């Protein structure tokens, strides 16, 4: 589970940083997704913010609980992983429907889609053994 902590730190802190940078409009225009100025796409992007911050909260909280030796960390970690998978799936589905394949947006979202699949079975297996 040590590797899961590494992925949680990268993902959870990454989401917090992404939303801070987005709110402050620090991303150069050439790195923004297509039609970024379209109000509908801006709303679509911001619609992910509550989900992404919930992912960060649940992931960081699970690590705090684990550090304190509380078994509830597994449930919070599982919630975080499932939400992370959903966030990646939603974004990839959107870009696939639009037939837009910009690696700058696909790579982070494929990461969000795939990395949870490595740890969800481990958490479920360990829970079933208990």
UniProtKB/TrEMBL annotation:
The keyword Transmembrane helix applies. Keywords: Membrane, Transmembrane, Transmembrane helix. The keyword Electron transport does not apply. It comes from the Bacteria. The chain crosses the membrane at residues 7-27, 47-64, 76-97, 103-124. Pfam families: DUF5360. This is YvaD family protein.
């Amino acid at each position: 589970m040590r590797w899961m902590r590494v992925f949680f730190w990268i993902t959870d802190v990454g989401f917090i940083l992404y939303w801070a940078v987005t709110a402050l409009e620090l991303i150069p225009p050439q790195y923004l997704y297509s039609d970024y100025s379209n109000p509908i796409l801006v709303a679509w992007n911001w619609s992910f913010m509550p989900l992404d911050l919930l992912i960060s909260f649940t992931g960081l909280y699970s690590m705090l609980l684990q550090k304190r030796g509380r078994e509830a960390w597994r449930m919070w970690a599982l919630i975080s992983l499932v939400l992370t998978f959903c966030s990646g799936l939603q974004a990839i589905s959107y870009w696939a429907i639009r037939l837009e394949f910009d690696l700058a947006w696909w790579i982070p979202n494929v990461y969000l889609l795939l990395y949870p699949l490595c740890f969800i079975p481990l958490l479920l297996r360990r829970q079933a053994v208990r």
